[in-house]
Each structure stands twice: as structure tokens, then as C-alpha cells.
Amino acid sequence: MAPLRVRPYSRQTWAEIDLSQIERNVRLIGEFVGPGVELMPIVKAGGYGHGAVPSADAAMRGGAKVLGVASLDEAKELYENAIDCDIAVLGFIEENFQDDAIRFNFIGNLYREEQIPILERQARKLGKKARVHIKIDTGMIRLGVPEEKAGAFIRRVLESQEIQLEGIFTHCPLSDDPENSFTVEQFERFMRIVSSLPDLPEKIKLHAANSAAILDFPQTHLDLVRPGILCYGHYPGDGVKREVEVSPALELKCQIIDLKTIQPGTGIGYGHLFSPKKEMLVAVIPIGYADGYNRLHSFGGEVLIRGRRCPIVGAVSMDFTMIGVPDDLEVEMQDVVTLIGSDENEEITVSELARKLSTIPYEIFCLLGDRVYREYLNEPGQD
Ligand SMILES: *Cc1c(COP(=O)(O)O)cnc(C)c1O
After folding, report:
1. 203 tagged catalytic
2. Ligand 1, atom nearest to 210 Cα
3. In the predicted model, is pLDDT for residue 373 greater than 80?
């Protein structure tokens, strides 16, 4: 299908998300970890900005049987949109809200002593079991049962009539560095805790691997892996082993909505941060920092027009950004401007943007605003 000249939404700022790419990435991760290992793709934060429900759907087509999110509301969003698989809330649920997790059959994250009697009371009241995975902190220093208490904690939960223990897990903060022995050490400590419980039922799933550990530390695959960023086609860091060849699913684009020729010395935008030394054609695009296009792009940011890199001129504002068009580039109103993605032989990757902003690709995705229309390619049933 030829691209539409005018998109079917008023603002002409959109993210193109190829769902078949998410499906393929998940399938490739599945092939890499092998048939004995379950996949729990992580679709928190609106599927890392790609849209939680469509991403969840694509991940299921790629072989996922359980999905991970960070909050109860995220889990409910999937449930309410008929995502038909197990959903694990790996983050925090305030205790007054935990009964909803039980009601909806979500898998909760259990890691504090005080949670146990509350869960038991809520489960009894609802006449249902509270499904949980226990998180052990082996070196993240975030959520998790401290290692020295983990054995007794697990035993206590195994005895509970109301709590159904389905998994035990940990998280690896340094797994994006294949040379760093910390991950191996923390993993061994995790395994020592679980193997100190000889009567642990077989069906309890052990898991530890995020995207980076999937790639760098295959011994951490255990019964289940939790790939996040990798499902969306990006590597969790520059140093990781690229054992799975994933491809990006998202491109960020908009159209030129105004063009003007300005004279030398004319200040552009708020604060007149930039003024050209000679006559310049300036293109206006409808995206700004409220859309997650960081204001720091005012200083050295670039976009692609007709396969060429063009500089951002002046300050990125809340709703708009101005682009300096090179003298020898012919542009027109409604030309597509690519902020993330490729155009002819040029490409702006999320990694490039992240490096420029001293951040990581994760943050760039998560900050993409709601005003950016999500245009899905290759949805099932769409031709
Ligand atoms: C977010 C998250 C993941 C996924 O991390 P990636 O680096 O994106 O693969 C895995 N496990 C937990 C507990 C998480 O919170």
C-alpha cells in the first residue's frame, strides 16, 4: 500500500508500529531459549510505548503464554481487552488493592512478610486462591525478599492454604555486561536458596532473565524468561551479545506542516536559540516535548527528510519543532519527516537518540506521549 499523503488523524504525528516484527522478535527469542523455557514478554508502560494491547496480542502470536506488567491497572487493561493469557504483575500493588489481583486471577508479586496475612485474608474472603510469584532480592536492592530470609519466607508461603505459589524469581541489574561476574554470582546465590528447599514442587517456575541476561547469561534461562526491550527489537545495551537478531518495530514520524524562508540573523523559536547566518528554509513539524520528543534535541538534534539528515533549529517547544532544510534539498509541504527510523539510506536509531540525550532507549520509548497516534502495521486480519 502506498503511504497516504494525509494521515487519517488530524495532527499528522504518528508512530508506525509493525506488529509482525514484535511477533517475530518474540518467536526468535523463543527459538533461542529453546522449547523447555516459557516466555513472559513484558508489556508494561504501554508495551514500552508500542501499545500494551496490540503488543500483548503480537507477543502471544509469537508464543507467549504469560505476560508481565508493572501495575494492577496495566494488568486490568489487558484483561479488559480480552487478552486471554496469564498476567503477572511484577511491580508493586498497594495492599488495599491486592484483592482485585486475586479477583481477576492475576499473578501477584510477593516479597514482604506483611503481605502474607493480608493476601490470605483477602483470598479467604473471595473464596479464591491468591496466585503469586515470590521475588528474591539477590542484588538489585529494589523489591524482593532479602536473601537471608528467603528460605523461611518461601516455606511459610508453601504452607499457606490461601496462597498458590507458582514461581520464584530474581532480577539482574548488571546482566547487560557479559564480562561482569556479579550476574553469575547472584544467580548462584539464587540457585542455592531454591535448592535448599528440596520439597519445592516441580511446577513452581524459577526465573531470572531479563533481555540482557537472556543474551549474555544462558544459564539464567531456567523455566521462564522475561524479555522486555528485546521484544520491541532493541538490545538492552551496547555491550550485550547479539545472539538473537531482533528488528525494531517502531518508527516515529510526522509531516511538514509549514515552510518558511527566513533571512540571516532571524531568531527562531522560544528564546531565539538559533539564527541562521544566511537565508534558510525552515520546516515546521507538529511534535514537541509534550509528545516525548525531548527538549534537549534543541541542541544538536536531527531528523530525516527525503533520506537526508536535517538539523533541528531553535528550541523544541511543547507542540512544535523547527527544522533547517539544507540548501540543496527540495522539500514540500506534507513531506514525511522521520524522527526515529529509516528513510532511504539514512537511519536514526533509538540508540543514537539515547546516546545524544545521555539516556537509554527504554526511556525514549516510555516517554512517547499519547498524542502520538499509534498506526499499526500487520495487524492480524488486516491486509
Ligand atoms: C521490566 C522488567 C523486565 C524486562 O526488562 P528488559 O530489560 O526490558 O528485558 C524483566 N523483569 C522485570 C522484573 C522487569 O521489571
Report:
1. no
2. 9
3. yes
Please, is 275 exposed, middle or buried when counting C-beta atoms within 10 Å of its C-beta (0-12, 13-18, 19+)?
middle
Percent of the chain with pLDDT over 70: 98
DSSP state letters, 52-73: HHHHHHHHHHTT-SEEEESSHH
Q: Cβ of 255: how many Cβ atoms within 10 Å?
A: 19
Instruction: Please tell me which residue in 9, 65, 260, 270 is annotated as part of the active site.
Output: 270
Dist CA 166 CA 134 (whole Å): 8
Output the residue whose Cα is nearest ligand 1's atom 8: 228
| β 250-255/336-343 pair status | antiparallel
The stretch 238-263 carries a mean pLDDT of 97
Instruction: Give me the count of residues in the chain.
Output: 383
3-state secondary structure of 32: helix
137 C-alpha to center of ligand 1: Å?
14
Cα–Cα distance for residue pair 43/66, rounded to 1 Å: 11
Residue-range domains of the chain with CATH? 19-232 (3.20.20.10), 250-348 (2.40.37.10)
Cell of 95: 495492599
Tell me how far the alpha carbon of residue 225 lies from the centroid of ligand 1, in angstroms: 10
- In angstroms, the CA 113 to CA 149 distance is 10
pLDDT tens for 166-195 read: 999 999 999 999 999 999 999 999 999 999
CB neighbourhood size of 199 (10 A): 6
Structure-block grid coordinates of residue 136? 528474591
- Let me know if 270 is a catalytic residue: yes
